[in-house]
Amino acid sequence: MKNRIKEFKKRMAPRIEELQFTIDKIKQSPLTLVALFIILFFVFIAIFAPYLAPPKGSDPYMMPNYGYSATPSPPSEEAVFGTTQQQYDLYYGCIWGARTAFKLATPVLGLVFLIGTGLGLISGYYGGIIDEIIMRSVDTVFAFPYIILAVTLVIALGQGLSSMIIALTVAYWPFYARVMRGEVLKQKEKDYVKAAESLGASDARIMIKHIVPNSIYPVLILASLDFGAIVIAGATLSFFGIGFPIGYSSWGQLASFARDWVSLNYWWATVIPGLFISIFVLGWNLLGDSIRDVMDPTIRRE
Amino acid sequence: MDLRDYIIRRLLLLIPVLFGITLLIFAVLMLFSPSQRAAVYATSPKALKNIDVIIQKYGLNEPIYVQYFTWLKQVLSGNLGFSQIASRPVLEAILDKLPATFELALFSAPLILIPGFYLGTVAATHKDKLVDQFSRVLAIVGWSLPTFWLGLILLMFFSGILPTGRLSNQAVLLKQSEAFTVYTGMNTVDALLNGKFWMFFDAVQHLILPAVTLAVVSMAALMRIMRSSMLEELRAKYVTTARAKGLKEETVINKHARRNALISPVTTATWMVALLFNGVAVVEIIFNYKGIGWLFIRSAQQLDIATVLGFSLFNGLIIMLFNLLADILYAYLDPRINY
Amino acid sequence: MSVNAPNDNVLELKGLKVRFDTYEGLVKALEGVNFNIKSKETFGIVGETGCGKSVTAKSIMRLISSPGKITDGEILFKRENNGVIDILELSDKEVREIRGDEISMIFQEPGEALNPVYTTGYQLKEAILSHQSNEFLKEIKNEIEREIEEEDSYIKKKLLNTQIKLIKRNIKKEDSRLTKYLSKIPLINGYKDKLSEKAKEKAINLLEDVELSEPEEIYKNYPHELSGGQKQRVIIAMALSSEPTLLTADEPTSSLDVSIQSKILSLLDELKEEHNLSILYITHNLGVVAQICDRVGVMYSGRIVEIANVNDIFENPLHPYTISLIEAIPSSEKEELNPIGGVVPNLVNPPSGCRFHPRCPRANERCKKKRPSLKELEKDHWVECYHSGDKDGELN
């Protein structure tokens, strides 16, 4: 038993060393800690939204509005961040908007990651006509700017969260497929894969056991850099008034309510929702940037 | 093989993608009901009043593959439907607004390219120094600010100083008068060609805010791409060879490393152009700058599907064109490429 | 150590130390390297991967880049005017003047050592002009002066005079912006075409010198259009472009086919005679050493442990490491190979005392405690070992 533990420790030693290196690297960069702090702060807001801003209507995501006057009113006791056009409560919208951001970006990133890496893996591993079809689909989607494609799809599918998730997934998966395919092609040529093939391992086994663990890192880096971008894309759709129904808690929509009141006299209406998006996205981008620095093998050791 | 053959081969490779683009747009079109789809086939507002006639004429209840070919025939003949927003055929509406967007992109380009390439190079050659840290923060922040919010903030501070729209009323009057000839549809260029300098400055004033807003995201992206590409080249062995020849560090960086480092941003050119189009849609809406992005979002808001789909198709084609240009530039920059 | 033959040395390294500051710790890559290269000889450095051979070569031209740093020692180099300088004391600008001019270098991977986006001609010309533009400019100046005398047209005369002024500015190495911009104006930079023409002529000559057939073709080619051997010849031509006194060759043949390898080696030998070169030849291959070197230094873990004439190294190796290296050479007479036991030492925490002691059959307590110094045991045969001289290891 003791020997086994020893053996295990010995086998794991390089991995533990690498992990230690990674942690050291992260510790070296104070920006990473800032990033983690920002993200945890928003996770907290999203989880405790019902306590931070108790819902007033039947649908908690619909923002309460105090009256129907078009002019935004400044921060007050009733609405600590003030209200925006049509007297929607900014504070309420910003808090529940954090939930919306997670509810939109998490499934999109998850789907995009699964679909993109899956298709990229199949495409790179099997090659031939399958590869051709998948890669031409990738090129096709790449021919559309993602906002344009997403707007077009949401128009066709109708407003709402699920339409936006589908639209953004369709727009984003090709990045992942292309990166994954490139990595798989590189790994496929390596001797260890050839060795596994010559031993008669099944395709599925080679892919899952050998290729995926060695080619997944660049895709993970991409994913860590994309969370923020997806949040911005979602916010942009609702800024156009295309994503969510009117009154739904979403930072993008709050910013669009400020569209007619862009002036220092009504600064809160413009500045506050934008700050929420920007800081949230900044947190993710800082995290993504340091993850890339730490994990990217070409710059890791510098 | 020479460059011409290479271009022809690239063009042939575009065919499946062009087919894919039409399939995708057609698939989206089929999500709508026949009566909604009718607008895509109409050529005049009159025709729109008799939707049933259109459904009959174009067989909008026929099997899908039949409809695909009917639709494709329409598209190839240049009919993208009738735009309710612009009250004219979609293609005409797009071509009418295209010069405005082109002008905006033209003014934005130097704001993207010059600082992007320059700061990217400087950051790489001064890795981990102050300039590098500064450009990194600049890039991450620039990349984190939603374009629409950046636009709104600039508008908030500069409203009253810099105008929105494309031209002041006075200039619009001049443009519509008989004395003024519209050559290109780009206000700055036309103003110069007509010798109206005040109108040129008027147009430039209107362009400043949108061009700056549009540039930020792309500039940040280019800067980072250029930095990492330059870092990679600086590690290459030919750089050591160049130093061993006794060349000045300036020559080693500018002549040897940077020339190679330029290849990588070119391979992402298509993506950068797409990024620019995303920005165009946002910026034109915020600054009320009536280009194709403005047209697209306005029609999306009004559920004018003929314009939305027509524009998407058109946009896909434009990006394919840029893709081709990038391929040619790539072949020019990298002698290793097989024609 | 003190090396005899005071004035015959082209290069002398004294106690050279190089450190790399990495995450894993301070890598002590070179730990006091001493050797000398005499005029017109080929000196080989042989050793395992990671022993510091390449670092030594790069240090000589001060091409170690961050995180590496030369922390101690002297690199004495005899210049063409016979003055001896310490390369480590020079300013960056002075080092640049020596690089590629008096000392040049050829590299391990010819495929990666040439810039892929420029033609070989461009890169050769660049090497030539980086050190010889002045000579060419002077020639051109004389030619233009002759032209002026024969010229009747006033305007043309004026133009040629301006060219001469510009040439003078360039010769004086006035790195002012004005000179730079003036040199870009057409007509008055007419001399530039002549400069380029002269450089091309020289480049073609060089390509012929390194025995490349169709030099005109190769001049126009991009690196990827050439074979590995051709690329290495181009690089050699580049290195010879300004008649250096010392040529550093860092495993120039290890990535080439064996047949091409021996051709390149004999080419180097010929060129050495023709151009009065001294060569520092770095390799891990003892066969190559036997073929090309006059004297050899055996390197182990950042130290030169034995220096001797090439025959002595093979026939009478004294250091235990050298002995095991030679025993490890496969040959038809031997029935089995004798690989060297143990592993290459870690350079962050190197073994105490003599760095070879953990792998040495003769090691004792003394070896662990204190490092021996390089001693001349036989004439011109230097060894860094307590036990050498008594080959059976009986004496301590």
TrEMBL record, chain A:
CDD domains, sorted: TM_PBP2 (cd06261)
Keyword tags: Cell membrane, Membrane, Transmembrane, Transmembrane helix, Transport
Q: Which GO terms describe its cellular component?
A: plasma membrane
Q: Show the InterPro entries listed in the entry.
A: BP-dependent_transpt_permease, MetI-like, MetI-like_sf, OppC_N
Q: Does the keyword Transmembrane helix apply?
A: yes
Q: Its topology with respect to the membrane?
A: Multi-pass membrane protein
Q: Which organism is it from?
A: Methanohalarchaeum thermophilum
Family the UniProt entry places it in: Belongs to the binding-protein-dependent transport system permease family.
TM helices/strands, residue ranges: 31-53, 108-128, 140-158, 215-246, 266-287
Q: Chief localization class?
A: membrane
Location(s), subcellular:
Cell membrane
Q: Source organism's superkingdom?
A: Archaea
Instruction: Tell me the protein's name.
Output: ABC-type dipeptide/oligopeptide/nickel transport system, permease component
Report any Pfam family annotated for this entry.
Answer: OppC_N
Among PANTHER family, the record links this protein to:
D,D-DIPEPTIDE TRANSPORT SYSTEM PERMEASE PROTEIN DDPC-RELATED, OLIGOPEPTIDE TRANSPORT SYSTEM PERMEASE PROTEIN APPC
Annotated ranges, domain ABC transmembrane type-1? 98-288
Q: Does the keyword Nucleotidyltransferase apply?
A: no
GO biological process terms, alphabetically, are:
transmembrane transport
Q: Which PROSITE patterns match?
A: ABC_TM1
UniProtKB/TrEMBL annotation, chain B:
Coiled-coil spans in chain: none
Per the database record, which ranges form the ABC transmembrane type-1 domain?
A: 98-330
Q: Please report a single Pfam family linked to this protein.
A: BPD_transp_1
Its membrane topology, per UniProt? Multi-pass membrane protein
Q: Does the keyword Amino-acid biosynthesis apply?
A: no
Q: Where in the cell is it found?
A: Cell membrane
Where would you find the membrane-spanning parts of this chain?
12-32, 104-125, 137-158, 203-225, 268-289, 309-333
Under CDD domains, the record lists: TM_PBP2
Q: Which UniProt keywords apply?
A: Cell membrane, Membrane, Transmembrane, Transmembrane helix, Transport
Principal subcellular localisation of the protein: membrane
Question: Belongs to which family?
Answer: Belongs to the binding-protein-dependent transport system permease family.
- Report what the protein is called: ABC-type dipeptide/oligopeptide/nickel transport system, permease component
Tell me the organism: Methanohalarchaeum thermophilum
Automatic annotation (TrEMBL), chain C:
| Keyword entries, A-Z | ATP-binding, Cell inner membrane, Cell membrane, Membrane, Nucleotide-binding, Translocase, Transport
Q: Which residues cross the membrane?
A: none
For whether the record's keyword set contains ATP-binding, the answer is: yes
Q: Does the keyword ATP-binding apply?
A: yes
* Pfam families in UniProt: ABC_tran (PF00005), oligo_HPY (PF08352)
Task: Give any single GO term for biological process.
Answer: peptide transport
Q: How does the UniProt record describe the way this protein sits in the membrane? A: Peripheral membrane protein
Taking every annotated instance into account, which residue ranges of this chain make up the domain ABC transporter? 11-326
Q: Which GO terms describe its cellular component?
A: plasma membrane
User: Per its UniProt entry, which superkingdom is the organism in?
Assistant: Archaea
Which GO terms label this protein's molecular function in UniProt?
ATP binding; ATP hydrolysis activity
Compartment(s) where it occurs, according to its Swiss-Prot or TrEMBL record: Cell membrane
Q: What is its main location?
A: membrane
InterPro entries per the UniProt record, alphabetical: AAA+_ATPase, ABC_Ni/Peptide_Import, ABC_transporter-like_ATP-bd, ABC_transporter-like_CS, Oligopep_ABC_C, P-loop_NTPase
UniProt name for this protein: ABC-type dipeptide/oligopeptide/nickel transport system, ATPase component
Q: What is the lineage of its organism?
A: Archaea, Methanobacteriati, Methanobacteriota, Methanonatronarchaeia, Methanonatronarchaeales
